[in-house]
Amino acid sequence: MAKKQxxxxxxxxxxxxxxxxxxxxxxxxxEDSIKTAHxxxxxxxxxxxxxxxSIVAQKIGNGIEIIGFGxxxxxxxxxxxxxxxxxxxxxxxIIPFSELFNRHTPLPVIVTNDANAAxxxxxxxxxxxxxxxxxxxxxxxxxxxxFVVDGKLVYGHDGFAGEIGHTAIRPGPSNRDxxxxxxxxxxxxxxxxxxxxxxxxxxxxxxxxxxxxxYSFEExxxxxxxxxxxxxxxxxxxxxxxxxxxxxxxLADVVAHTNPEAIFLFGGLALAEDLIFEPAxxxxxxxxxxxYKGKVKLLASExxxxxxxxxxxxxxxxxxxxEAK
Length: 325
Description:
Layout: E1 4-12, E2 16-22, E3 28-35, H1 42-60, E4 64-73, E5 76-77, E6 82-84, E7 94-95, H2 97-101, E8 109-113, H3 114-124, E9 134-139, E10 143-149, E11 152-153, H4 192-205, H5 222-230, H6 234-258, E12 262-266, H7 274-287, E13 297-300, H8 308-324
Parallel strand pairs: 1-4, 4-8, 9-12, 12-13
Antiparallel strand pairs: 1-2, 2-3, 5-6, 6-7, 9-10, 10-11
Helix pairs in contact: 3-8, 4-6, 5-6, 6-7
């Protein structure tokens, strides 16, 4: 009996690295994670990750054949297999990820930006099937973006096209510091971390009561803010509205650059649904050039919510195989 072919999708985030064994239909046969933040050295991190992947593979059994590893990571470079100067990871400089990973396996290791991986995943498994022009915005610890134009993912000259998370929404020396070393980047306002920063700013400037006041910055997370907003908490609702408006304002620029059929929001912050979608849609439409108004759909990713990033990363392997045919 032939073994089922699977790709291992790996999503490297600032807090956790999640992986899963995914078949061609998008079914995840097994998954697990490790804490990215626990590792300062990429070699140690990769060794621990590969060991955990091997353990899960053994649990699944002998019925699978791994055909490759797809990796989505901040500042992943598909041209070189590197992760370069990631703002949201504990590793610094240029990490030769594919090379280090291939010390453990001879199989293909495809590395790209986490948002580009999400865009490929949306094409293969999600709501962008059949679309030729769309954008995926990933809203997690940071903000990533992947652009598909005329049916092809845009990588650019060095493999780093589409980094709107590190375009300025509020330039100037008095604005928020970003992990990339600059100030006023979009992701300092529109991300799980940016949402927390906005909550603290609103609480500092307001005397409005809020259940969030009892938490420190380290204790606070986006889910707490979401839950408070659903209950009607003034500070939490205002923070989401501000975050959505900032996103919508920037999306109007994105539409002008690429004229997409749709923009998909992907990641933890997108799960806030109307709290983020309504102000984002309103401000995007308000700031669009007339020729684009009412034409661009703002949609939630249709990838499985819990496994979206893993599906996106695994799709790199399947996409690479199909391109090679």
